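DATA SHEET
Item: assembly model
Revision: 1
Owner: S.N.
Input lines:
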Amino acid sequence: MASKIIEINPITRVEGHGKVTIQLDEAGNVASARFHNTQFRGFEKFCEGQVFWEMPTLTPRICGICPVSHQLASAKACDTILGVELTRPATLLRELLHLGQYIQSHALHFFHLASPDLLLGFDSDPALRNVIGLIGVNPELATKAVKMRSLGQTIIKKLGGKKVHPNAAIPGGMSTALSVEDRDYFLRQMDWVLADAQVALKIWKDFAAKNADLVENFGKFPSGYLGMVDKDNNLALYDGKWRLVDSKGVVLEEQFDPANYLDIIAEYVEDWSYMKFPFYKSLGYPGGIYRAGPLARLNACTGITTPIANAELKLFKKLSKFGFVESSLYYHYARLIELIYSIEKTRELLEDKDITSTDIQVNSNKYNEQGVGVVEAPRGTLIHHYWSDETGKITKLNLIVATGHNNAAMNRAVYEVAKEYIKKGNVTEGILNRVEAAIRCYDPCLSCSTHALGQMPLLIQLQAPDGNIVKEIYS
Amino acid sequence: MSEITLTINGKQVKGNQGDTVLAVCEANGIKLPTLCHYKGLTDVGACRLCLVEIEKERKPVPACLYPARDGIVVVTSNEKLERYRRLVLELLFTERNHLCAYCVASGDCELQSLAYTYQMDSTRYQYSWPNLVVDSSHPYVVFDHNRCILCGRCIRTCDEITGAHALDFGKRGWKTTVSADINQPLGESSCISCGGCFQACPTGAIFSKGSAYKGRPDECAVVESSCAICGIGCEVKGLVKDNRLVRIDSPDLSSDRGLLCDMGRFEPLFKPAERVTSPMKRNAKGQLASCSYEEAFEAIAKKLGSLDNIAAIASGKASNEALNAFADLNKALGTKLVDTLDGDDFRTITQGIAKFDNKAGLAMEAGLEDILSADAILIIGAHPVKTHPVIGSYVMRAASKNKAQLIVLDPLRNPFTFRASVWLRPSEGKEDLAIKALGNAILDHGKVSGDKTKFSAEFKEVEARKAAKTLGMDVNDIYKAAEVLAESNNSVIIYGRGILQFKDSSMVATILNLAGLISKKPKVISLKRNGNSRGAWELGISNSKGSVVTELSKGKIKGLYLLLADDLAESRALSDSMKGIGFAVVQASYLSPITDKADVVLPSLLWTESKGSYTTLDGISKSTAPMVKGPADIKSDADTIKGIAKHLKK
Amino acid sequence: MAKVKVATVWLEACSGCHMSFLDIDEFIIDVAKLVEFHRSPITDIKTFTPVDVGIVEGSVGNEEEKEIIEELRHNCKILMAWGDCACFGGVCAMRSSLNKDDVLRCAYIETASTYKGKIPQSPGVPALLDKVYPANQIVKVDCYIPGCPPEPEAIKYGLTELLAGRIPVLPSNIMRFD
């Protein structure tokens, strides 16, 4: 039997198309597995020559699922170019806008994408294993899903102007204030949304209890963990310093100013993917691969400032000997803890007396040479770095997007899962769904929308080395 | 103007002979789509959206250029015309890179709005995707050629309304772009930063750095006011969102005083210094610390009320209401030394007029509109483009539209020196002699329309030829200038800092003599320094005897009340002269070296935040309306001053 | 009544149009009753199951995307474009003004954090087209819902019209390009 290539195409992710190829050896076992990103758009080039005022509105078009994060990272970079310090109300509004996105994005991911696997099982009928299927099986839960995501999107629309690609975060602050009526409306929603988030947490816990072995070992491998923290090393999502730890608990970077990211992070290019591979420079590539996003953030922080989420974080930390959780499935758990934090924090911000202030803009007509804006997007750390000339024109950009940080990790997770399940050339749809599930843990953006619309479109080709298709499997 | 009757869409409508079909449509409420048409500008028929069918015409014609005639039959909308219009829109969208998604003008764009109207959900043509530059070189506006539809509204505004003609079309054919000067970056061109192009632009091709993404017009409240910065009193329209000034426009660019300048349109969008947000007085440690109005008033009344030798100085930026209260307070305090910061200008001008002939001199004072109708303009020691840009613009318009001849008499280069028929360039300090030489040459010319017997004495004392030698000037230039002025029927003389800096009233008298010599109805405009300089002079705030500012440094004055309002100019010089003052009260909008020296600081609202009346440099009364609220609980200047007065009586 | 078979693809895009589709909120539950989302909506293989309605988000910027839209067109009765990218080229088409090699060099070699850069060229990644095109410059498109992304209202309008058997033409009052 000749060696074969299994191709899963497309696996979708933030920038559009992605696919997985799994190379089998002569015996039909996994020799290698790769997650390719097949789309390229060139923001870093075509944004050159634009003026920086436009960047917070232009760059959200990188991603339709976390446009708020792009807008905020961009606006933060532009604040630095303007050389201004934001007013407190402007910072609060931006953080609230960001939390609206966390609520919608984490809810979307858990309910629309992950819960079908968790509730219905990896090997259940692919025709039902999606949110539309969920509507049939558990309409009550599906309604919760729609409602929770909708609340997050409504917060984004009220604060940001639009649900997708908002435009209210601008260099120097925000363009729209929050009205008292809207503030009161959102406050009234906090109780049910927190209760629903706790329902989601229970779904996870039931699943984890029933599938302890799977949860513990699914796509498990050691890596670094990168996340943003406040000055006391508590979880931070909008602004803070970086903490980078490894699986053994070694703190590689503490209270690191992300504006200096170039000192510790570089990106490697592989010939077979349009997505670059960020790594921690001191450890080189591929030794310095690290993970970002919910699991990494909870591994990197030591506490959470809101009570319910913090209590849950303590349980999370107990899952492993060193306090650093390695299995990819735990991303779901971490994401739900962050969802609860986001809701608790949203309430805290809504109760702040400055939240409805109109003192939300600072202006300047002097422009600094460069600005770095970093936020924690739902899927991981997001970096926007702009260089400007003295007239405000962008001369150069560097963008490291959230999903990018997990590129190497997703490749590794795909390999680990494929190796575990594909034996002697035996490939079933359920196995390939597990391979995809490994990627889905990391929540690369577009998988969400596919799943929500129906199911992960999937084709597996078993190819002979000469390219002849030996076997095709549709999901 | 004779009335005509024509048929539009089957209905008889009236118009005037000389109107275009578009004008008749507009007057009769018949809507036609337009992009290149703009109120007050010459129509050019560039966009082809207003195409209409006219009986007996072979093909559709642009309504904006077609003269309405009695009896013609016009159709403004049918299937064919609507198809053409959508085609034009598709061509416009595919010609350049129109990306509404992130465009600053989205939601406030005439091109986009028409695309919606015509349900243009796609285009049938190949995109050109040209690689065009974004010109961000200008301090206030960005010119993004990707979004330009070549309607030429900016070009015509710059030429016909601003008079600068800094913009024009460059290159040819499909490579045509709007170009500043001859392909120069806008920020390095002869642009005078009036912002008219930005206001006239139908798309996001020209946008303001200070306003970008801060709010669309439909999200903003509109507050009409007038600008109080330089003393011209231009009408303004503030667009306000959540109590923030998003942008300042002219209510009607084509109207009188409808043009704005960088000072009125753009600068108020930026904060030049930190604000004074509450009253402050020295604490036990000697530091300025916030206090209540009551505490501040108490401290001021106690101190100033007990001191003998006190002075009070106001800026010409304060409103008439504030200045009235200021005058009353000083009466109550018995302040002997009262002046304005520009008191020197006041004394130079008024004493000059008195030397000349008070009644006749005052009668010579011209209005700004006189510039537009002048056939010759003499600019002496003034840079209106910098200090009073709208006057600069009026001069340029008179020169380009009315072919008015410009004569510049100035040692320094300014934007008019290269446009002028003659630039008389004496060395600095010799302006006086140059003016006299010019007067002498006018006498030589013989044909003088003014009163030769009354005004020639001073000019007979010099001889143009000899003076030219002393001045190092070409005598032919002096004679050429003399000829222009002597032969003009309607001349205006403008003078400013370059003359006033010498604090020599006889120079002003000489200028008035020259004006009387060259015209039967002499017109003179003096460029005063502040938005309400003239108001302060008329209220008698300026000291007629001598400068109070120079008294400050002599050490005799023990107490000082300084009403600065939002004046930031000359703060260093003034703060130096405050060293010996025992007790100083400063009422100001901004923290500065002057407020640092004060014992009590009172906050002051900006003109954009307050209601007040101002007198323009040509004597017209204008008022401001608050466009935004100032920092919380700040009283108006007048109320603040009245508050002190009340405490005095206790 | 037989359900309407719908296939959707995203080409060069950000997924925002699909997100906006989810923003029709509860209406999605009604849609689910009337519509069968096709099992394999996006694929680059030779076989493609016929559907009633094909929906495309995104512009066409590489060989793979070109193949996908051609196959979708071949297999659907009505093709609807969602969003500015599919309707006009959109933000993705900003690359069209530039030389594609310059764009690739910038991203994979010149950017500040790139280490030992090289331009990905293996068969694992599809080659870029010289320009980025709106859908109707590659295949015939039957109806358009522009917007970046289209408002949920606009998406709802498009689907409702299609389900009623009409080709939607978006009315001016809900048309948006931003």
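QC remark: The first strand of chain C starts at residue 4 and ends at 10.
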